[in-house]
Records
---
Amino acid sequence: MLQTLQADITQLNVDAIVNAANSSLLGGGGVDGAIHRAAGPELLAECRLLNGCRTGEAKITKGYRLKARHIIHTVGPIWNDGKSGEADKLRACYTNSLRLAADAGLQSIAFPCISTGVYLFPADQAAQIAVESVRAFLQTPSSIQTVIFCCFSAADRARYESLLEA
Ligand code: ADP
């Protein structure tokens, strides 16, 4: 089941929340900073052992002080001109995050709007890629039952609502 919510992703009670991290995995601004603050310093300690993460790839940690038991850290592409593979890399973020969740036997996962903050990926196109890549992944049966698109803004929420109705 696909759902959208307007919420702070750090508050969600799901098996995994996804972090729009940077390649160091050592924290940053935006949703990344919020997740590290809410999860506590143990998260940074685990992230230090992961040797970073490439754009489009994903790594899993525990959720520490979050309600979510796991955090899947993925690194979205920085928008350049749209002709530098940004769309494929963003699709890979969703697919690789879902694959990690399925490999761990998780049932529910929430995504933020990856790359649409300081990485400047156009919001409409990013939402389309998010919905398409999640739908494509769910064509194959796995443990995953619920995918939440957790929007921070009302505008993003409206965008996902209309895509999910279509
Ligand atoms: P990126 O570097 O991938 O662009 P950002 O964190 O700057 O990542 O922004 C990604 C998205 O996360 C934006 O839509 C931003 O509004 C949203 N966001 C920021 N804080 C939170 C939060 N606490 N919960 C959910 N979404 C958030």
Note: Helices lie at 30-39, 41-48, 86-103, 123-138, 154-165.
---
Amino acid sequence: MNLLSPLARIKGVGEKIGAQFTLAGIYTVGDLIDFLPRAYEDFSQVTSIINIHPGKMTIRARCEKISTRPVRRGLRITTATLFDDTGKIQAVWFNQPYRETQLKPARSVEQTGGSGEEFFFSGEFEFSYNRYQLTNPSAELVKDMPVQTDRILPIYRSIKGLKTPIVRKILNELRPLISMLPETLPAKVIKDEGLISRSQAVLTMHFPENIDDIEKARERLAFEELFQLLLASQLNRQENAKLIGWQIPFNKNIVGDFVKKLPFKLTNSQRISAWEIIQDLERKTPMNRLLQGDVGSGKTVVAGLVACQVSHIGLQTAIMAPTEILASQHAETLVKLLQPFGLNVGLLTGSVKGAARKELYNHIQDGTVQVVVGTHALIQEPVKFHKLGFVVIDEQHRFGVNQRQELLKKSQYMPHMLAMTATPIPRSLALTVYGELDISILNELPAGRLPIKTKIWSPNSRAQLYAEIDEQLVIGRQAYIICSLIDDNPENEIKSVKAEHVKLQNSIFKHRKIGLLHGKLKSAEKSEVMQKFAANEFDILVSTTVVEVGVDVPNATVIMIENADRFGLSQLHQLRGRVGRSVHQSYCYLVTSTSAKPTQRLKEIEKSNDGFYLAEVDLKLRGPGEIYGRAQHGALNLQIATLADTKLIRRASMQAKVFVESGSNLLEYTQLADQVQYYQRLTTLN
Ligand code: ADP
Ligand code: MG
């Protein structure tokens, strides 16, 4: 038997069990060995019956009597009296009549007065049916090597049809194989980092002897995972450096002209980021850069400047946004920015149909449209570019890796790629998630912006809040009111946009024009609503989180978020970024679901306007899952490590760098190569 053997080779795995494992994606012996416990229960301390307390415990006892009685249809209860030198205890099993047979030798106690076999029993000692009892304990002969009792018991993710005890038993069969697992990490890395061997780590995960060992084992395996991931991105970086892209010389006049024609002055960090990008474009190797900037920091302008620069040697720019609203808004902004330079901006979304779509395709193909803004429609087959030189991916975490690759494929040479995100992520996270990207940061807001005033609001004083909002409307400003649901749900108190819209329009804000926006509207309807709001034809926009990303209406100065406690920090911060986009003072009101004390999360966002700080807090409070998109989370597919392991990430990143820089050849490490190459394929942007 080896790691690639089918499960059927393991003792105790028949067709039925094998089929259940297969359904869970476990095909080989190696897969099963990698199926690590998700938790543990400590049954390693044996308690004397006299010392027993409620809770999980193990006793070492013999059986005095045991009998089974049917209680009702489908339920049989087996009851036993167990004893050791210190006392007696009652044990109860539901629908496990075989316990009678299993514990039978002990019945000789009654008949002979002699001693029956001794067992370990592990289970929960609890008060039920009016007395203390041991419920559903597992039982194993002391003279056998116990698997289900008397140890720290691993608990496995549940697989349909396979109870944890079966999984434990089968893994126990693999013990000899596990203790001979080959090493995967380079010896130098193991030594430098003081890690335990792979076989020891996996053995400990499945058969821990004490709790502290588990942490060491987990660390070793998490390190391995991160090392592989980070090595993959280092290698991708190296490979990217070998690619040939379009070399775009810096044209001082164009950039100077662009900046002069702007109605505002670029911020320092906009200038620095633009310069970093322009320098990248001058190189032969294609750019792979992430532009991180808090909401409202002015990323689109930077992209526009670069598009202008790219066009002077006849290259096209494609800008892909996650929603139609965003795409059309970008297009509008870019038309304003780029038309003075004679550039044509095309908008390609699902709503462009028929002849218009065909014509746009043609113009993209013959190069008369220099800048194309669009949604996923951009990666559809018929779209052919004349000369695609620059690809911008807005809110890039919303796209899967494959979607980005599709777009990059539409060029003779590898286009330069700029990913943009308004979800600031902590440095350590950036390393793993964006390991192969260079990063530019917009860490300041345009001059003259006043920090948004944020206030947590109890639902009880809503009337007063509406009055405050109206003060803004009176002086000509606009407001967003955000609800998390579209339709009312009578089951709970969560506000829905439809009901709020009707309610507000018929009462408090009778005198105001109120728009309604949500994801179920057709995209033409959505953009109509947005356009009307942008044109100040609505005073209030009641909306779901579809306005979350990037929507830009500078005259809106109030955002009221209902059931604010239901949102994540980063999401609240994103929503808040819809206001504070002009010189006017803006306000964000976080209305809680109940009048109970607000959560830590809400208090943090009330205190801070700094997206990077909030991202750190979110990472601490909620873990990394919330912070970046599902697409990538799925792709990385970390089993053991979490992105919150910041120290470990740094260590693994160092080692990956050393590995690549010292010229080590991955292929010499056969155990390592497979997984690393797998990660390389997953994360590559090429
Ligand atoms: P982001 O996409 O980073 O959230 P945008 O690019 O949408 O930000 O810019 C937000 C708003 O700020 C837009 O109305 C834009 O025209 C404006 N803006 C961008 N840069 C500046 C600047 N340097 N000074 C003043 N306003 C700016
Ligand atoms: Mg934006």
Note: Residues 299 and 518 are 25 Å apart (CA to CA).
